[in-house]
Amino acid sequence: MLAVAVLAAGKGTRMKSALPKVLQPLAGATLVERVLGSCHLLAPDRQLMVVGHQAERVEQTLSRVKGLEFVLQEPQNGTGHAVQQLLEPLADFKGELLVLNGDVPLLRPETLEKLLTTHRKGGAAVTLLSARLADPSGYGRVFADWTGQVNAIVEHRDCDAEQRRNDLTNAGIYCFDWPKLAAVLPKLSTDNDQGELYLTDTIALLRPAMHLEVIDPNEVAGINDRQQLAHCEGVLQERLRRHWMTEGVSFIDPASCTLSEDTRFGRDVLVEPQCHFRGATTVGDGCRIGPGCLIEDSHLGAEVEVIHSVLRDSSVAPGCVIGPFAQLRAGTHLEEGCRIGNFVEVKNSRLGEGCKANHLSYLGDADLGAEVNVGAGTITANFDGVHKHRTVIGGGSKTGANSVLVAPITLGEGVTVGAGSTLTKDVPAGALALGRARQLVKENWSAPAPRQEQGVAG
Ligand code: UD1
Ligand code: CA
Q1: Single pTM value for the model
Q2: Residue 56 pLDDT level (bands cut at 50, 70, 90)
């Protein structure tokens, strides 16, 4: 039997944030979601989460995780106190308890698996992950002998100068024999610099205690402040880019691009510098993205080109060309081969196959049939100050430059709108619609002579 407990009750004072530390985002997922995700190979029988500071917010974030048991720690009196809260829910539990600090987000699932097998083979009362760090400051130090037996863990702030020279650090990831841990948990004391109950103090009370050193110290990087958050973001981004490069994506300047955990790419995608993919974005085979794009929660079919543009909550069918300087906002659906050019904004609209809006337009709450040519500066006036209304433009229609379509309005198929028109009424299929003042020409007209100024102006 295996239970996993994540410690996520702390405030994270050093983050100086209104958000609890474990809810800080990292490459599109919160720290605590990442920690939970690192357990996915283990198939634990029980999953518990110790919450305290802003407990409701943490619970809400994780409400979709099935079978997760929340345990309240109130007040938060240290990691040992957090684990003491498990004594009741795990009263009848016999088996291993894997304890994970909620602020160690880069752990690989394979490493946890290895910790568990090492623990099971070694028959220790506890096996913990350790790492040798170039800069161990802030971490608890692991004092172990050459056989891998751990005598004690001493927190950085409780170490003397000699002890601080030990670069073997505690990762905050432990596999305990639960009944043995449960027996020593009540013995913890607050006799330390912070006056808290330390989970690390149980190590000296458990025999044998073993450690498993991780090879890549980045894996066990804990996040206490924003510098460490930025460091972990960098490590994750590097991992994500490397993964997608092995899957057939080319980055011209990888370090200038950021991805999210849920970004998916097809083959032969070319990503130019300064492109950022967020949320659940998918990019089809052969797309060329960038330079300079932000694409969030959007789906791009094959062979789409996007240059210097922002796309959010949109779907783009194969062969579309977007930008430079276009914005697709939420609810935009482009069918195959559309062309959205510079300074064009599209929102909550569907454009049929082969539509073109090449310059300076706003299409909001609009439905366009296939092959509509949207003239430069065409605007759908969708908002009457209170409500949003839809504009419908039939297939094959053309709007002249600087047309304003005042919604609600429907243009049938094959309509032509004269340049400079403001249309407020529906137009039947095949018609030409003009809605502008007639041009007035006064021939042989001479401008009035400038007035002669008299005296001193004042
Ligand atoms: C802890 C370890 C340290 C280790 C380091 C690794 C202890 C005493 N020290 O120190 O040896 O090197 O992690 O990153 O355990 N939490 C609670 N309730 C509390 C306090 C904390 O749930 O009352 C949670 C926090 O939300 C956090 C985790 O426990 O997710 C670790 O707490 P933190 O205060 O960050 O411990 P460190 O000082 O980093
Ligand atoms: Ca920490």
Answers
A1: 0.90
A2: very high
